[in-house]
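User: I'm writing a tutorial on reading structure tokens. Could you give me a worked example: one chain, its sequence, then its tokens, then a sentence or two explaining what the tokens reveal?
Assistant: Sure. Here is the example chain.
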Amino acid sequence: MKLPDLILKPNEERRVKRGHPWVFSNEVDVEKSPLTDFAPGDWVTLRDHAGNALATAYVNPSTLISARVVNREPDQPLTREQISARIRRALALRERLFDVPYYRMVFAESDDLPGLVVDRHGEVLVAQINTAGMESMRVDIVAALEQALHPLAMVLRNDVPARAMEGLEEYVETVIGELPDRVTIEENGVVFEIDPVNGQKTGWFYDQRENRARLKRYVKGARVLDAFSYTGGFGIQAAVEGAASVHCIDSSEAALILALRNAALNRCGDRMTVDQADAFYALRRLRSEKQRYDLIVLDPPAFARRKKDLRAALEAYARLNRLALQLLEDDGILFTASCSWHVDGQQFTGALRAAARGANKRVQIIERGHQAPDHPVHPALDETDYLKFTVARVADGL
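And here are its predicted structure tokens:
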């Protein structure tokens, strides 16, 4: 199949040759290959300015990322057979990593399926299709997932803001089977009920699995505060591992109702309380009440969704961590995270350092974490290396 050409400006092929899977709109020679000639999702052969073929990609003329590479050969659009092969390869990695079928099964570009995310919750799959190119292959994606896993049910959670930027409508649809009344997952030996239709993202955040496992060595007998708790991923695992008490803060009433249900499911409801509130407000209130904790977890949403948000995000991380440090007992432990890929590790450490100065605390970093291995990093795409996680020991006085 001979595809139309998308031609780059002079010297703009270097990133693609190094393995980067994206082409930005300002890298395209629009005189030789006008972006307006293409419809969202069209297949193209990507060429350098001299006309040498670089790759096959799908295109969207209306977005900053104007093309995403799917094959390194020209004139090779993605087929159902290739989708199936890449899904099987992704599955093989997860089955090597985990004994139970609860994980992120497809992580977009990192699994050579740009624009597609799939989480496996046992017999239930939840997928997000975030680009026009992948939306055009929706039927093939569903068929390939059904063939690979034979799920009881599969939901498309296509209700994310990224779709609007791609010119796509938002919707949620069950495309295979019927969802059971309750969907449960297991993580680190703890059981959680999740909401794959109305919950955040795909219903669970598997990327923090390894960092939640770190709780075991710190929480026995501890008073724990879990801010931005969602449905209790950190807090309930802390209680199961022997925390004396756990207080969960989240702005979502639905999430906290599910957190209480999950606490009961794991027989630790008598040691858990919840607080529906903005986390910044709640931490200030707890400080005014002179509450103290032995371990605090901070797992906020991304504060820097765009590069221009970086300065404000760093200030927010410093402010948030300062509030937490002021609530910690001497020799307390802080678990603190950033999922903003625009914030790098050094900048996140700098925010923690600023927080310690502001709170008049001494901090020792004793562990660093990362996203779980079912979220593999594409070595040419920094955006896939996004989660920073720090465990710090805190002492009074500078």
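What the tokens reveal: The chain is about 30% helix and 30% strand. The mean pLDDT is 96.
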